Every structure is written in C-alpha cells, then in structure tokens.
Amino acid sequence: MEQGLHPDLRIDQMPQTLREIVLGRMRTAIISGRFPSGARLVERTLCDQLGVSRSVVREVIRILEAEGLVESLPNRGPVVARLDWGQARQIYDIRLLLEGAAAAGCAAVADAGVKDRLAAAFAALEAAGGEDAVFEATTRFYEVIFRAAGHDIAWEIVQRLNGRISRLRALTLATVDRAVPGRVRMARIVAAIMANNAAAARQAVEDHLRDAAAIAQRMLEGE
Amino acid sequence: MEQGLHPDLRIDQMPQTLREIVLGRMRTAIISGRFPSGARLVERTLCDQLGVSRSVVREVIRILEAEGLVESLPNRGPVVARLDWGQARQIYDIRLLLEGAAAAGCAAVADAGVKDRLAAAFAALEAAGGEDAVFEATTRFYEVIFRAAGHDIAWEIVQRLNGRISRLRALTLATVDRAVPGRVRMARIVAAIMANNAAAARQAVEDHLRDAAAIAQRMLEGE
DNA sequence: GGTTGTATGATGGTATACCATAAGACAAGA
DNA sequence: TCTTGTCTTATGGTATACCATCATACAACC
C-alpha cells in the first residue's frame, strides 16, 4: 500500500556510533599532523584522551591500518604510518592515472548539469580562504569530476591515497613558488571539461599533478 | 660488534595472532564463495564457528569492511558485499590502468633476474592444475610484474580489487570459450617483457583484461 | 667488568559481561 | 479483519577484566 512518504519527516541523522566518531577524529588527527608520523598510538592513552573504551579504539585502529594511515609493528603496537618519497611517488603516479581517466571520462559525458556543479565547485574553491577550506573545496571539486565520470570506486581509492600523502598535499597547496599557480591549472581543467575536450582535460590534470608531485618531492627530500 | 648472523637460525614464523588467522580464514571463505554474496555475518555465530571471541571477529570484520569485502548495514550488521556489473566494470577499468602501467614499467626495467623470476612464475602457472592452484599462480605471476616495476602500492590496490571480484575471476579462469585462450595472452605478456618492449607489454595486458572483463560481464548479467 | 638471570612494568591480545535497540510474534481491541 | 501495543529475542555497541609477552633495569655471578 503506497502511502506517499513525506521527505520532510525523514530522519536522516542516523545515530552515529562511537566508532564512527572516533574514526573521524583520529583520521583528522593523523591527516592534520597532530599525531606526527611514526608516533606510537598507545591504546590506553587514546582511550583516556577520547573517553571511550579500548574496543572502540582497537576497531578504529584496524580500519586506519587498512587505510594505510597506521601501521602495526609486531609486538610494538600501532604507529602513525611513515611516508618516504618512494611511496609518495607511487601514489602520485597512481593518482595521475586515475584522475586523468576521470577527467577524460567526465569531459566526455559532461552535460549542462555536470558543468553547473563543476562551475559551482570551482567558484567555491576560489572563494575558499584558509588551509582547511581550500582542502575541503579541492576535495569537492575532484569529487564532482569523479562522480560525473561514474568512477566511484576510483574516487574511493584516490581519497584513501590522499589521506596517506595529506601532509604533502597541505604543503603543496600552501606553496606559491610553482611555475604556474595551482588555480590557473585548475581553471584549465574546468575549461577543458566545459569544452567536452577529453584529451585536454586529461592533459591538464596530468600537468597539475606532475607539478604537485615535483613540489612534494622537494618538500619531502628537503626536510 | 659484528657477530655474523646465522640466517638458518632465524625464527621466521612470527607467532601469528588470532586476528590474522581469522582474517585469512574469513577472507578466503568470502572469496571462495563459501559465504555467499549478501549473506549476513552474525558475530556470535562466527565466534562459535571459529572458536574465538567477539573482539577478534569484530576487528576482522572492520578490516574486511575497509577492504570492500564486507559492508555494514546500519542497525543490521555486516553482510558479504554485493557486486553488480557497474562496480565490476569500474574495477576492470582500474585494473586496466594499473596493470598496464605495471607491465610497461616492468618491461622497461626488466633485467636478467626479473626475466628469470617471470619465466619461473609463468612455468608454475602452466604447471598448475586445479582452480586454486591456478588462482595462486596467477597472483604470483602478476606480483612479479608489479614488484619488478616498483609498483608496490598499486599491487596492494589491485589485490584488494581482485578480492572484490574474486568470484568473477574464478568464473573467467574456468571459462574456455574465449577467443584466445588465457594462457596464450599470458605468453604474449611474457614475450613482450622479455623483449623489453613496454608498449607491447601494456597492450598485451590490456587485451587480456578486456577479454576477461567481457567474459565477466556475460557471466554476471547472465545469471 | 661483562655476561646472564630475573623481576617488574607497560602494552597489546583475548575473552566476557552488560546494555540499547530493532525486528518479529502475538494478543487485544476497534 | 485490521490496527496497535507490547513482549521477547536476536544482535550489534560498549566497557572491562585478565593474560601473555616484550622491554628495561638491576642484581648476581663468573
């Protein structure tokens, strides 16, 4: 019996479980660098800091471990994952493939709706002030591209990889000494997609990423 | 003080933790299809079947969830992840990119040692009888390629993706009605790498994968 | 003095107990 | 008969208790 559901009465806010909350907190704590690379994650200490039991902390650590943000040394416990340039380079290479394909796919199928969303995301990016806001806006921008291309799984993978190089990304976003400013490169991506030019979109994304990777390398090897 | 370590006395067998054992068991149970797609994974039942406590089972489920093999429905608990063709197609597309790049990279840098290992892996593949053995040998074959190319992280990703389409892979491996038998395609890959021909290696891998994807699509939409 | 045995504390691994809630069954009333 | 309230049970969420092991320090013995 169809009884016309009233969307306004919907309960969207599922009662978030403690685990999800703690997962979010710890993830941002690691990504933001509050827990530095290599730092030990002592379970009982985290319990005290977070006010939850070890069950929750342990399950969250397992998730973060699977995400590559945490690694567990045998008989030593979990530590924040370390990142060397060899790994970072691989991650940038993979992003080059996945983001290039997404941009090309997006450009190939972009209709008016997609272009609207992309323009909005780009405007938000340009309006964003402050590191976190830029970070967030950049994520949204790429999400539009991946979703439009129908590459949801690739998007998941890229997000996870981005988590692992988050500190590098923050550094590259803040860097101003790049040959062509990031915003200009982003604008090229937008233009290519608006023109439904798949090859140009891929090229623009790849240029942007190679640029970012070069900066990241200087950062990582310079310290 | 250097005191010449005796490799023979090494203790390799790390005292595997219960969690790792259970993780392995459950992963293969899902991949092999013993837990069918969509089946509920009731924690206490699993505890009985495995003879471990819920702590262990829950942590393992978190890992499998992060791997994409399990999904947790809110207020319903974990179930074996479902797979539709839309997702499978995306996974094959990503594999196309990553495996193509790995094969090209491997061909570009392959020296005598790599070629030896590759030949050995291919021989093992041809000698393998039985579904599981073929599966295992195929994995080893690709591992040689990825490792030689230095694409460790991409290899992790591919392995994880393969877990999600394992049942499809089993079907395609068992299929004989492909235009060109799988072994022949594999031989092309080997030949291209032996000749250090990166473009040909990429092409061979891509052909092989497109073939497998086509078979998988027929399987998945046919049932 | 250096080596080795031992005690102690920190920490992860594991098991279990308890609680909140959702889903299904069933009875009572219209 | 259909609705509605309630009860029960299954199940996941959370906390805690206990155990095994590793690392460190220190003492004892050669």
The CATH architecture of the largest domain in chain A: Up-down Bundle
Give me the number of helical elements of chain A.
10
Total discrete domains of chain A: 2
Kindly provide the name of the CATH class of the largest domain in chain A: Mainly Alpha
Largest sheet of chain A: 2 strands, antiparallel
Outline the structure in words.
2 copies of one chain form a homodimer. The first copy, chain A, has 223 residues and is mainly alpha-helical. Chain A has 2 domains: 12-80, Arc Repressor Mutant, subunit A (Orthogonal Bundle); 85-222, GntR ligand-binding domain-like (Four Helix Bundle (Hemerythrin (Met), subunit A), Up-down Bundle), CATH 1.20.120.530. Chain A is built from 10 helices and 2 strands, in the order H-H-H-E-E-H-H-H-H-H-H-H. Chain A has helices at residues 18-31, 43-50, 54-67, 85-109, 112-127, 131-149, 152-164, 166-174, 182-194, 198-222; strands at residues 70-73, 77-80. A two-stranded antiparallel sheet of chain A has the order 1-2. The N and C termini of chain A lie far apart (66 Å). Residues 1-7 of chain A have low confidence and may be disordered. At the A-B interface, helix 3, helix 4 and helix 7 of A face helix 3, helix 4 and helix 7 of B. Chain A binds a DNA duplex (30 and 30 nucleotides) through helix 3.
Summarize the structure.
The structure is a homodimer of 223-residue chains. With 223 residues, the first copy, chain A, is mostly helical.
